[in-house]
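writing this on my phone so excuse typos. first protein, seq and then structure
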Amino acid sequence: MTMRFGIPLAAGAVLACAGGATAGVSVVAEFAIHDHPNGGLFPPPYALRLDDIFGDYQATYSAATFSDATLTVLQDGSGAFMIDIAGTFHGGEDDGAAWLNPYDVSVSMRYDANVVATADGWQVNGFTTLNSGTFTRLDTNDSVTLYGMESMNANDGPLGSTFVFAADGWRIAGDDTTWVGRGWLTSNDDGSAVSARAQDWFFTATVIPSPSAMALLGMGGLVATRRRR
């Protein structure tokens, strides 16, 4: 099948990364995470919003300060996809113009179930505690587990989806090719919302080149097999 990623995809080609994944799991593609240009509290720019998670305030976090945040798409031997998001983000209480007493957050998030390929990228469907991650304030070492929460607004992603990563330029006017990641988060293990304010991913991304990836691109691109876990 061919997928409209801005990168043509050839069915059957999987990017294997030696030492980059656990046994039986291959790396399909790796992306560098960047801030989205159209955040609702912008400025400052951010890639992650966690209102009411580390305190009773609006909070945004940028991927730009450390530039180590990545999204990795994986595939196991059965054809099931997984998505890892990891890195260090900088931010904190956001008054709509600047951060007040900013701090750093270490993130390790894994979407391990219900990850499917779509025409533009990948989508995670339905709530499950298998899709979770640890978010830790590095100044206080306070840590919270967050789960993917189902979308209740079709403008944020298909209803029932918890995360979408697609080359569709979401919320970027006139752009239908930029990779964008978005999806709601919650610290409640029943999938309910933390508060009426926002807790969500909101970032753009670019492919991280590698010799194997470039070789595959020369042959027609990265894999995408429509599978459901």
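second protein below, same order as before
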Amino acid sequence: MISPKQARVKRSFDILLALFLLPFLMLPIVILIIIASIDTKASGWFLQERIGQYGKPFKIFKIRSLKSGVHRLGNMDVYASSFGSFLRTYKLDELPQLFNVLKGDMSFVGPRPDLPGFADVLEGEDRIILEIKPGITGPATLKYRDEELILAKQLDPDTYNRSIIWSDKVEINKKYIKNYSFYLDLIYLLKSIKN
């Protein structure tokens, strides 16, 4: 388990790294938000509810990558445009989460924050993954970097996600927390940059 001292070191590192990156990433973030606004014809910056530390909801910052279209029969469909797909492929839609790190909602490394209905309904020992701040990257994120492609190949993506991917992520994140070390955080960050 992560100790109080390790948690303080982790948080200090998050703040220092976020402050270091902010001057370099601020302009690209603004440019991507403007392009996303033009591309989706909606605000390029949006908030989405996710489950954070101790199961508390928070608003995650993202760049909009999906837009709405109308089929011939008049029903609405939500899909990623070419630019949206580019953002999602290279995880650029997640750049604004730098501000979530500065706010203290997130860490650079940890379990990815999920939508309500996943981490917040865990029971027993599995709830250990709620003891730390969710992360921008982490071991489960790296393993399932191509999660959207995996799910797209399934006949029932929702069931596959809940029964296979989600349960595996929980086990990976439990192992990460039980064997936490700052050194491993650095390794996961480096692997995320390389990938």
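Residues 15 and 102 are 6 Å apart (CA to CA). thats all i got for now
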